Each structure stands twice: as C-alpha cells, then as structure tokens.
Amino acid sequence: MKALRLLRWSGSVLSPRTRPCLAHLLQQPLSNRRFLTAAASPLQQAIQYQDQEHDAEEDLWGSSQAHTGDDLVIPEDMPQSLQQEARLRALPSPPLSAAKSSAKLAALHARLSFSPRLPIETLARCLVDATADSNPDFNNTSLAILGRDLYSFYTSEAILCRYPRLPTAVVFAAMAAYIGPKTLTQITKEWGVELVAEPGGEVDPGYLQCRREDSMLIRKRSPDSDTDPTSAVEEGQPPIAGANRPNAEQKSWRRGVSSMTVYDDEFGDLVKGSARGGRSKGATTTVEDACARFVQAVMGAVYLHRGKNAAKLFFKEHILSRHLNVGKMFEFKQPTRDLSRLCAREGFESPVARILSETGRATRHPVFVVGVFAGREKLGEGAGSSLNEARIRAAVGALKGWYLYSPLEVRVPSDVEGANARPWKPVLVDIGEIIV
User: Across-strand partners of 355?
Assistant: First the structure.
C-alpha cells in the first residue's frame, strides 16, 4: 500500500514554527536565517510544497552569504503576521516595545521588588549580553561596568572594615565568594532567570540573551591554569590582550601578592581585555560570565535610577546577607613558624605549647588538649589524637584569633556619604600579614 503523505493536507493546522519540514531552517544560526533577500518567495510556498524544501530554503532565507540589516526586504504578498516575524528575526535582540508585554520580565521586576522608578525597559536591557547584541546602546556592557565597580567597592570595604587583619590572599578569596562569577550565577538562578537557546528579536525579553560557546570548544583547564595569568587559550598563542601587568609574556615569572593588588582585578586574577569593554560581532561567552554581567548590570541600573542608598540596600539584601565562613578560607603551611614570627613582630614573648588535659594515652584513641601561651596569655587551644596534632591545631587557632579580629561597631566609608550621615570614625589599619 502506498504511504500517505499527511504533510500535504495537514498544512492548514500546522504553524510554520512547528512544521517538521522547516525545523532545520529554524535551527540554523541566527546570522544565517535572520534576514530575507529581495528574491525571497512567500513563506506559504515552503509550507505548501514539501518536495521543494531545498529550493524554499534557498529562496526564502537567501544564499549562504552573510547579510546585514540593510538587506532586509519584505515581500508584499507575505501575510502581516509573517512580516512582523521577519522584522523581529532581523533584530539581534528583542525590541524595547516588547518589554511591556513580557510576562517573564514583569514577574522578574516584581520578584526583585523594584519600584516604577526603574523602568522595565532598563531591566530588559540588563538581560541583553554583548555577545547577543554588539551595539552598546542596547546591551548591558555599560551597566555591567558600573555594577561591577559598585560591587567591588561595597564588598571590599565591608570585608576590610569587618576584618582589618585579614591576609590579602584571604581577602581575594572572600571577594570571589561574595561577588565571583559562580556566586552571581547562583543568584541568577535564584532570581528565576533562564538563558535563551539562541538570541534574536523574536525571543521573549524575559530571557537572558547571550550566545554561548560550544562545549566542545571550551579549553580544558590544567590544574595550574587558574594561577597562571599569561596562559593562552591554546599552546603557542600570545598572552591575553589588555593585561595591565608588565612583562606579561614571561610565563615563568612568579606572581606575588603585592603585584596582584596593583595589577590584577578584585579577585587577584589577570585583567582580561574583554572584561572592561565590548565584544565583537559573533563572539561567544560562558554561562557564568553572562550571568555575572547580568547581575552586575542590574546593580548599575538600580544605582542610576534609584540612587546610591537604594543600590547599597540592594547590595546588602542580595550579596552581604549571605553567610560566609571566613575562618575556613585559611590554609597555613607551617602555623607554628608563622605564630613565632607574629609574636616576634608584635613584641610578645615566644609561644610555648603546654598540655592542658589528656585522656586515653594508653588506648588506641587518645585525646590531647594543648594550649599555646605567650607568657601568661593563652593565645590558642587545640585538641588532637597526638601531641603534635594538638600543638598544630592550637597554633592555627591562635593565628585565626589574630587575623579574624573584628571591632564591635563596624562602620564603612560609604556610611558617611550624604547630608545627614554621622561623622566618620577611623577604623583599624593593620600593618599586614606575616612575611616568611
């Protein structure tokens, strides 16, 4: 029996978007299917004649050559709905007029408790990454730069004023824990923002518009690639452009903590050229970077439309309210030596370890409690299954007690901004960590 071709007589109930014969057309990259050419034929021809699939692709979407927005010509016999869809597909990102009709965008605006002073069009712009729309007038690049600087300022002053004796490496780790890409990606998920599969003008503006890089092309990081600032994407390539560090081509040179503070970013990482500027057309990005720029752009939008008080309140509610155990970020290689150097620098007596209590010395599971004393002052205490383990834990506890000092009343420099602010009281400025 001859098989029936149901597709010929079911075209009246199938929309062009869900029709199987055009599925491969709609799955093509947006740059190839976005624009219509002057030789285009009506869309109904491709729907009506499945046998002319290949010809319809060539006639409808044009040749495989790259087109620009000036090449867009809409056939006069095309229905109005399809003309509107063609105009939307010609845009790299959703138009501003679609922001007010987006339910996802309105829900996000209400979920973040934004007032009408922050327009919903601005929130829609925060969702457009530079990889989706390279035009700086429509993407979130400028807002993300402002938001990143505000996040860095508020986070650094909060950490340094609360823990003035923290080592620089721990400050970098705390900054990354508060406002790093992984944290901002988690915040994006908590806000209920979803990423679009492929950006375009026909997409709902409530999605995060970005062009993600192929997972097969992502560089496999080596164990020490995160600490090497000059490592290129592939072997033999030049160093990353835009780095402020002098002699960046010297891969074997050591990066000290002092140079990280001067030349690198707020996380102690190398400043990349694309981190502060726009991106070229056709560029791709990772999900973490796109989500981080979105959250930073939202912060910049809040600051511009509602002021610095609202921006700081937004920072406290979404960033500083997260619990961070700074004590678990320490990693001492030789805590007893560091404690001896610290006592010598501060003019204390040399630390001495003494047994405070013990139990089960002759058993398989003994427990020793050792305290570290500088004269009559007990600096730290630790317990372990051996005397050496208890002594090391006591030294670590003494070092953490010194570095995790926090004043009773914590005030930051941004609290004194404004007409009705209280006068500034200087905070403790420590001379730094122990240099061994």
Answer: 370
Position of tokens 């823990």? Answer: 163
Q: In this structure, are residues 404 and 328 in contact, taking their beta carbons and an 8 Å threshold?
A: no
The two tokens of residue 236 are 């033999």
Greatest mean pLDDT among 196-200, 253-257, 338-342 lies in 338-342
- Global pTM reads 0.73
Query: Which whole-number Å values give the CA distances from 413 to 105, 152, 389, 425, in the listed order?
Result: 35, 14, 42, 9
Find how far residue 431's CA is from the centre of its chain: 32
Q: Tokens 């726009």 correspond to what residue?
A: 278
Q: Distance between CA 109 and CA 193 in Å, rounded?
A: 11
Q: How far is CA 314 from the centre of its chain?
A: 17
In the prediction, which pLDDT does 241 show? 45
> In terms of Cα–Cα distance, which of 20, 27, 36 is closest to 78?
36
Work out the pLDDT band at 78, boundaries 50, 70, 90.
low
As a whole number of Å, the CA-based R_g of the chain is 30
CB 184 within 8 Å of CB 344? no
Amino acid in position 334? Q
Q: Say yes or no to pLDDT of 262 above 90.
A: no
Q: Which of 397, 285, 350, 322 is nearest to 158 (CA)?
A: 322
CB 338 within 8 A of CB 350: no
What lies within 8 Å, CB to CB, of 314 at 6+ separation is 299, 302
Token couple for 8: 């010929």
**168 contacts 332 by C-beta, under 8 angstroms:** no
Residue for token pair 């700074």: 326
What is the residue type of 316? K
